[in-house]
Amino acid sequence: MSQASYPLFVKRDLDGFFGLFVDNLIQLLLIVELCKLCGIEANSQLMLSYILPGAAISILIGNVFYAVQAHLVARATGRSDVTSLPFGINTPSLLIYIFFVMLPVFERTKSAETAWQAGMIACLGSGLIEFFGAFVAETVRRRTPRAALLSTLAGIAIGFISMKFALEIYQRPLVAMLPLAIILITYFSRIGFPLGLPGGFVAVLLGTLCAWTLPGLLPKELAGPAMSVDAVKLAWQARGFYMPRFAGEPLLHLLREIGHNPQEWAGYLSVIVPMGLFNVLGSLQNIESAEAAGDRFNTPASLGVNGLATIAAALFGSCFPTTIYIGHPGWKGLGARAGYSTLNGLVVTAICLTGTVDFISKLIPIEAGMAIVLWIGIIITAQAFQTTPTQHAPAVAVGLFPAIAAWGLTVAQGAFQTVARFTPDAATMQQVLTKEPAVQINGFLLHGLLVLERGYIFTCMFLAAIAAFLIDRKFYTAAIWSLIAATFAALGLTHAYQVNGNNVDFLFIFAEPHSGALATHTFGIAVGYLLFAAVFGFFGWYAAQRPEDTTAGHE
């Protein structure tokens, strides 16, 4: 096909850009805000000269590669509707590495620089796992039912995308609901706007106008907080230009320290190893989601570049892995092609290198773009049911539960931290988690929520795969998946946590538990999965002995 038939930029790329940019901007704002907990201020050299520029390099590498990849696929297939894979900072890794790596190191050492170095080590470890995982991921993909790969994404979309943004939209309705109406018209009714304006642009523009004008016309309790001209001016004056700096020397310094005190740092493997595997599997599922939407990309290349981008982030000072984003079908539904990815990479790089992240947040309210991301979540959830075999729909539903539990746990943790603010000892915390009926209120079981949440991206896939193979009466294959689930549980990659004071922490079998912690072992769940395997294996044999049932037990 000619290059003209697949241009560098189409009008609907602007819609895709707004959705992806809002998502990336939220991650950058989280980095700036949460790093303060580790002693890293927004205007510090660590933030302006290392963390944000390092993030910019990784985001630019990925966005440009996936845009070029889309052009190559379009040229090879003769199609003009190829949409590049969305890419950005990995939100779960961002939160986990701050709260379970950087913050504990900062509290132990009282050094913001050491906390930053620990974050870079975690990011580097994740990147290496992602890169080498790329060479085996295609095999995993071929042997895994689509229902198992997509149900996890649907669960994440319901809880961490759709529910989160739906709540925020209704929390500030006079700013966010008008953009929501525009998005619903644009992408559900598919009616164009006058002058051919992109719906996403119109939504963000109207939301921004509401945020700036309504507080002056309505009572504060209705309009919400007012936008500040002074805040915008101050943020504009604070900008500058910060070239990326190679961070290899600080990395080597901490690696030498870890070599001298390996036991002191071994516990962080319980965070880095599961999160690295989590990122590989999450990206793999997103590639499967793209193929279900009609765009097939090379799996090893896609995952390999994802890993290289994360490694580059660490080498230039960022603590936060990047990932192939959930939501390709949503951006494809917007009409975006490859230009949205390139534009996102360039704009995010520009704001990171010039220190204008804070300026944009003061000028455009996040609520103005939330409706676009909400729509992405809706499309992902719908796709999980629409593109899997009809008979596998129950398997998709089964796979939703661990992801919903993960969202529920984040809500519960936030409630405890905001309202309770108690600091019991480990024994009291253990009792709160496991004793009945202490936390059995309207079916709410905190211990059950925790064990279902830990490693939920794996549990979603295991349960959905088992269900799909049982639906197809492939009992032996379902038994094999049960054995894999048992192995992950026994290793602590799923269902495992430990109580450390009043904190709930990760637990990995090869890492030392924290001093004084009460570990919650998962061998009972591992045994349960072994019983799964035994029962399924028996029924595979039993079904094969019934010649009248010719469809049973076929593998």
Structure description:
The longest helix is centred in the N-terminal third of the chain and has 33 residues. α1 packs across α17 and α4 packs across α12. The two termini are 42 Å apart. The protein is mainly alpha-helical. The protein is built from 23 helices and five strands. Strands 4-3-5 form a three-stranded antiparallel β-sheet. A two-stranded antiparallel ribbon has the order 1-2.
Name the features.
555 residues; mainly alpha; 3-stranded antiparallel sheet; 3% strand
Strand order of the largest sheet: 4-3-5
Beta percentage is under 5%
Q: Quickly count the helices.
A: 23
Mean pLDDT: 82
Q: Report Rg.
A: 24 Å
The outline comes out as: globular
- Report the structural category: mainly alpha
Low-confidence stretches: 421-426
Find the count of extended strands (DSSP E, 2+ residues): 5
What level of helicity do the residues show? 55-70%
Distance between the termini: 42 Å
What does the main sheet amount to? Answer: 3 strands, antiparallel
Q: Topology as H/E string?
A: HHEHHHHHHHHHHHEHHHHHHHHHEEEH
